[in-house]
Amino acid sequence: MVLESTARALALRVATEQATARIPALAVALTRGGELIWSGYRGRVGDGPPTASTQFRVGSITKSMVAVMVMRLRDEGLLDLLDPLEKHLPGTPAGEVTIAQLLSHTGGLTAEPPGEWWERTPGVPMPELIGRLDPMTGRHRPGRRFHYSNLGFGFLGEVVARKRGRGWAQVVRDEVLAPLGMRDTTERPRTPHATGYAVHPWADVLLPEPEHDAVALAPAGQMWCSAADLARWAIFVGGDGAGVLRPATMAEMREPATVEDGPSWTSGYGLGLQLRRHNGRRLAGHTGSMPGFLATVWADPADGVGVLFLANTTSGVKGNALTGDLLDILDEHEPALPAEWRPAPVDDDLLALTGPWYWGPAAYVMRALPGRGLALTPVGETGRASRFAALADGTWLGLDGYYAGETLRVVRTGGGVHLDLNTFVFTREPYGPPGPVPGGVDPEGWR
């Protein structure tokens, strides 16, 4: 729970958004530390305000749920992210595009399928959809650039269905949503749910929007979800996988695979997750829109905070501004306390590796991390920092930075000890002792 003053500031921001954007119904929530800490509801669904159990359509947030299932299949060895689509879904004109490229919207596929606007018209089965496609399905060379594709996630949903032998939504419900306690998330709406509306731009009147089963395109945006369930999703996205995914796989989904706006990126995409930077935070989650509905969910794995909103309007909500402001209000009124420091045991052999190391004349320092981990960081503003995890064979695997995936070995000789980091040698003294330094050291030494 939050303090009364914090709740008042949050409620004011939500009320202002609902009134100025003219949203028929708006549900908002914040999570922290694995719990729902605040929620707010404005507007009307039927005769009263929406509640934590009122369903809204979440649009493309569905894609993240499908992506989690794809990653489960990868972890089980049933597919590889580098597999071409043709291997698992033959007969499409996008057969050379890889699973990873579909997950990250870098396959170059057209954004929308051919035919009428799929979000407002009844869908068609996958064989019929494939039959409508032509060589222009590929708009860009695969891997060249980020180009959002609803069609690509229709393909991924079909891959999930074929691998499990039942519908994609049933698979996602059984293997992803149910373990997370998301029992109010369904492929089609159930009562109570909000009706999707368009709000007239120049008058305070509403027009109901159509809702259909998108069939083959359903994996791109079909799900309906309550605020309580979407809060559980925020906690999952910012966490360690909750037993649904391996912690390393969850972290892999949050890594940037591509960016949308250049080198100093503020928005990008991982594997089925959108990424966004906001005031020092690096958020993972997804936005969603369907006729009559807008939704967004973000999570910050660094401090376990999540934010979301659900609205039944086709347009008008400034979603990133709303969610960003709610996070800022929480940070201003109730900043997270640093975790309490406590001493932790360190094995003697690990303790002996801590302290200064030198790559040539460049100074680094090694620190011990929990679980026999190591962190190698430069002394000063330049250099390559990485963390390393201990492996059973006595080596360490790079987790991030330049050395991600590379091997660190501790080499002990009669002349002492040095580190071999993928051919780079680190010694206890600058360029010394002479033995292990590649290319040798001038015999006259420093002068």
UniProtKB/TrEMBL annotation:
Q: What is this protein called?
A: Beta-lactamase family protein
Please list the residue ranges annotated as the Beta-lactamase-related domain: 16-319
- Pinpoint the DUF7586 domain residues: 346-428
Could you tell me which PANTHER family the record lists for this protein?
Answer: D-ALANYL-D-ALANINE CARBOXYPEPTIDASE, D-ALANYL-D-ALANINE-CARBOXYPEPTIDASE/ENDOPEPTIDASE AMPH
**Xref: InterPro entries:** AmpC-like (IPR050491), Beta-lactam-related (IPR001466), Beta-lactam/transpept-like (IPR012338), DUF7586 (IPR056008)
